[in-house]
Amino acid sequence: MANQEWWQKYQGLILSAGIFYESENWMPITQKSDRAYGDLVTYRFHVSEPKALVFIFHGSFSAASYHTYLASRLYQDGFAVFAIDQLGHGKSSGPRGLILDLEATYTSHIEYIEKVRALYPENPPIFLAGESLGGTIALSIALKIPNLIKGLILYAPGISNGPKLSSCNIKIMRFLTWCKPSITIPKMSSDLFSRNPAHGSWWDDNPDCYSGAIEMRSILTMVDALNKLSRQLYGLTTPFIYFQGGKDQSCDPGHARDFVSSCAVENKEFVFYEEMYHAIGNEPEFPEIVDKTLRWMNDRI
User: Domain Serine aminopeptidase S33, which positions (predicted)?
Assistant: First the structure.
């Protein structure tokens, strides 16, 4: 718990401030690919005889520490909880502000799930939870290993490219990165992601979160991943609960509603809050959302 001072002023303002996983870097995981290679930092709240195993995946340029409030609530209810910092995020290795290979991210996260599962011979059910890009990762993993996943908890997941990313704009971005691979774009103000007035400064002060300019290559990596996911998504079979805000500027609420109503999953639930922004984990409704999450999961164990 080094460098505690920075977060102390946010206690009572940010739900996760002052909450830490009991184990950090407890299981070695290395992401291996030609484009993105490095060691990942893992976290857990251990329960010897858990109701279920829950893996929480964080969003782009965020970190596992962003979701410790959710993790602690799950742990208090008898779930064993696990998290991992993506390459280039949080305490994991790799250059900040750069996402180059999400397929390798899926592979490393599946490795983590399978290694953890092997520690529990009674095979408790496995749930995946994710916010934003973390929701994209959870959905992609569920499509790859559907027989292992009992359910998904999705907090404003990325399931399609935003309206500003037209095919013309994407072509321009590809040309610009071909000319200059390291070209960057300004990051959206963190205040646009949450109504919590402390969220912006907390994100900027947080050493685990990235506040700098974003390389355009990272945006294109996510564009390609979302294009691939959108082609596969309607084949999803895993039960899920999907939380979405009506004032989300990153993920289209209309597309979210259309997906939930159209996908073939029989056991699904869509929970919509008209005034909620994108960073659900720091929105005023989140304690209520966690209550609903716990009820949904307990009903499926």
Answer: 49-285
